[in-house]
């Protein structure tokens, strides 16, 4: 059992501690209780008071004997008998339960509103009847004088189901688009419903007419509250004949007197979460309001906080056991929490032993947690050199550490680390400097290469972000963060040469813009140098923003282009003059050229002809080749053209060919002369 205290109000958590799994046998459970001290000391007020996964709603029957809870998974209801301190029955359902109501004094008549628009009725033996409503329901209330069920949900109508006649009656037509909650006053049976527009509509069930409307959304907005959207009504509860509490989806609770349209008090939870449950505690005039994170108890007359509780898991529902100080919660966890607050009232009759137990705990002050004690772990004790105190009266073992007197802790820390104050002072000074630095001009770290280009990209990116915010478009990725262009800002080979002719002609207005960027770069470099030199001194005010000048006029653009062209001509003229001076100063020396082996030097004209030929276009060269006979162009049958080239022969090849030709002619003449001599000899023999 855990004990906590806030505003001197002690809260006992009866469900704290480990729970044993259901599948363990009784023998194993007894063996674990003998071995484990924590299991032996835990208080299991109601046996197996939990759900398989999550519990969503919890209620107590009017006779106080039965506690019913719904949860998942699978969707089910569990009924616990307080006389036996155990579970009485469990019933599984077809779909999850949105909310339920106990119509009888015990568990014999129950109505469930389920997710699939189903309304299911259960009697003492189990399932009795099932019907369906036209729209998805969110809440319902039972009107006892007429036996009518009023259903509200995702519709502008309030559906009425009469349980005596067993049929649907004419629905109530409201001005709301949707309704979230509803309640019926237990004294004069006024029906009230909370809408999604932040209004509460009150109806008279006798005449079926609307008698009043409260604009709670407007009243919930005060000077201290901060809201992001229109508050809708998420909780509603009557107290007596005249009081009504309303909870909003933005975390405010409004207390109304039905005779006035203005709230008596507005209480903000300061978490911005919807109010899940509102309960009234009449003994101390308290209102118990809960969102998914915290349960707050506050005075309904002054709004002063009485106490609060923050469970470990999110809260789904809160139930106050009538005429007692016991509080039960349904959580986003298997175990349902039970709290006992003795100040609110005595323990219920079925667990009256809690009063004696709490009185004994109050008599023994060592078991409570004091503000004058410091929690330390074993490692902290070793660092402080107090590990030898383990087991003595100066240390109180608790969970995974120990409690020790805060004065002893401070003395030990001062002795272990005498320069702790100096470190603390240094840290505080550093924090102050960081706060002042945040008010200064935020320095942008620019790359070493192409700084001006990076600054230009940053400026364009800022302008694009403003445009995309206005148009609600997605931001494009930055070039500076793109890995593909990372080398451009790291490698000096990619440095942009702004003095080149191409750059200056392509960017005629770059001079003015670059001057501005250079000034900005100079300011950034000065600020960086100043920050490195002065670490602890606050810097002065930031320089005024430079006046932006529009440079989109066509006239200015033309003039700038002309200026750039004039400058380029002047620079070219200066370069030519410098070259002439250099030529005059230099002495001409003879140059020697080496001719390749096998070639014969004729003149420099051939090289000049070759250069002229290379400057001509391909078409001109083809025509020239065609004239010389080295190229033959002919049409084919398909319609295309066929070009045949003849390779040019070198001078050496030509000489070889001429020598071969001459050699062949000489051989021919020799053959002819030889054949002529043979023929003459043959003729002479014949004559003899």
TrEMBL record:
Residues 648-663 have a biased composition (Basic and acidic residues). Residues 529-558, 639-688 are annotated as: Disordered. Belongs to the WD repeat NOL10/ENP2 family. Residues 664-688 have a biased composition (Basic residues). GO terms for biological process: maturation of SSU-rRNA from tricistronic rRNA transcript (SSU-rRNA, 5.8S rRNA, LSU-rRNA). Gene3D superfamilies: YVTN repeat-like/Quinoprotein amine dehydrogenase (2.130.10.10). Residues 1-364 form the Nucleolar protein 10-like N-terminal domain. Residues 369-417 form the Nucleolar protein 10-like second domain. One of its GO terms (cellular component) is small-subunit processome. Residues 482-508 form the NUC153 domain. This is Nucleolar protein 10. SUPFAM superfamilies: WD40 repeat-like. Keywords: Coiled coil, Nucleus, Repeat, WD repeat. It comes from the Eukaryota. It is found in: Nucleus, Nucleolus. InterPro entries: Beta-prop_NOL10_N (IPR056551), NOL10/Enp2 (IPR040382), NOL10_2nd (IPR056550), NUC153 (IPR012580), WD40/YVTN_repeat-like_dom_sf (IPR015943), WD40_repeat_dom_sf (IPR036322).
């Amino acid at each position: 059992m855990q004990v906590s205290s806030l505003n001197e109000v002690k809260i006992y958590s009866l469900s704290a501690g480990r729970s044993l799994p259901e599948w363990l046998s009784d023998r194993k459970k007894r063996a674990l209780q003998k071995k484990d001290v924590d299991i032996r000391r835990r208080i299991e007020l109601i046996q197996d008071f939990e759900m398989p996964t999550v519990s969503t709603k919890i209620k107590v029957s009017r006779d106080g004997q039965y506690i019913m809870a719904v949860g998942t998974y699978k969707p089910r209801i569990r009924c616990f008998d307080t006389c036996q301190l155990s579970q009485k029955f469990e019933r599984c359902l077809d779909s999850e339960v949105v909310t339920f109501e106990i119509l009888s004094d015990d568990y014999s008549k129950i109505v469930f509103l389920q997710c699939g628009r189903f309304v299911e009725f259960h009697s003492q033996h189990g399932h009795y009847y099932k019907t369906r409503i036209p729209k998805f329901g969110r809440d319902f209330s039972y009107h006892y004088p007429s036996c009518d069920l009023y259903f509200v949900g995702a519709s502008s109508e309030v559906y009425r189901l009469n349980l005596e006649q067993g049929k649907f009656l004419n629905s109530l037509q409201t001005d709301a688009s949707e309704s979230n909650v509803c309640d019926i006053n237990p004294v004069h049976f006024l029906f009230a419903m909370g809408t999604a527009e932040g209004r509460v509509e009150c109806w008279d069930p006798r005449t079926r007419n609307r008698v009043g409307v409260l604009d709670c959304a407007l009243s919930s907005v005060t000077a201290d509250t901060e809201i992001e959207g229109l508050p809708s009504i998420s909780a509603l509860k009557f107290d007596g004949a005249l009081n009504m509490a309303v909870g909003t989806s933005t975390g405010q609770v409004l207390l109304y007197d039905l005779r006035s349209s203005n709230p008596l008090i507005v209480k903000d939870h300061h978490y911005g979460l919807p109010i899940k449950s509102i309960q009234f505690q009449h003994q101390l005039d308290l209102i118990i309001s809960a969102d998914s994170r915290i349960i707050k108890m506050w005075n309904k007359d002054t709004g002063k906080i009485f106490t609060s509780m923050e469970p470990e898991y999110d809260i789904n529902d809160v139930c106050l056991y009538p005429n007692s100080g016991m509080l039960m919660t349904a959580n986003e966890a298997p175990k349902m929490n039970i709290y006992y607050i003795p100040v609110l009232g005595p323990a219920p009759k079925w667990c009256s032993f809690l009063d004696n137990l709490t009185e004994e705990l109050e008599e023994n002050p060592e078991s409570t947690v004091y503000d004058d004690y410091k929690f330390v772990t074993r490692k902290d004790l070793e660092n402080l050199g107090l590990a030898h105190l383990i087991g003595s009266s100066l240390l109180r073992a608790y969970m995974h550490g120990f409690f020790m007197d805060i004065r002893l802790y401070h003395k030990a820390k001062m002795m272990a680390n005498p320069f702790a104050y100096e470190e603390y002072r240094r840290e505080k000074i550093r924090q102050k400097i960081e706060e002042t630095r945040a008010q200064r001009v935020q320095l942008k770290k620019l790359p070493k290469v192409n700084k001006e280009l990076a600054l230009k990209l940053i400026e364009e990116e800022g302008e694009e972000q403003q445009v995309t915010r206005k148009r609600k478009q997605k931001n494009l990725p930055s070039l500076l963060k793109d890995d593909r262009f990372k080398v451009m800002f790291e490698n000096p080979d990619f440095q942009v040469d702004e003095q080149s002719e191409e750059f200056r002609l392509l960017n005629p207005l770059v001079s003015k813009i670059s001057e501005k960027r250079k000034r900005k770069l100079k300011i950034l470099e000065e600020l960086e140098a100043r920050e490195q030199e002065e670490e602890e001194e606050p810097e002065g005010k930031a320089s005024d923003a430079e006046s932006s000048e529009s440079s989109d006029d066509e006239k200015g653009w033309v003039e700038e282009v002309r200026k750039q062209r004039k400058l380029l001509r002047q620079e070219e003229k200066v370069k030519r003059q410098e070259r002439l001076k250099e030529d005059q100063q230099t002495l001409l020396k003879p140059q020697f050229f080496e001719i390749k082996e096998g070639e014969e030097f004729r003149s420099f004209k051939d090289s000049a002809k070759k250069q002229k030929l290379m400057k001509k276009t391909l078409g001109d060269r083809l025509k020239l080749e065609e004239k010389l006979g080295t190229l033959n162009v002919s049409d084919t049958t398909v319609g295309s053209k066929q070009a045949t080239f003849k390779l040019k022969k070198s001078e050496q090849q030509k000489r070889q060919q001429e020598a071969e030709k001459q050699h062949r002619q000489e051989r021919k003449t020799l053959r002819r002369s030889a054949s002529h001599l043979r023929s003459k000899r043959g003729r002479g023999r014949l004559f003899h």
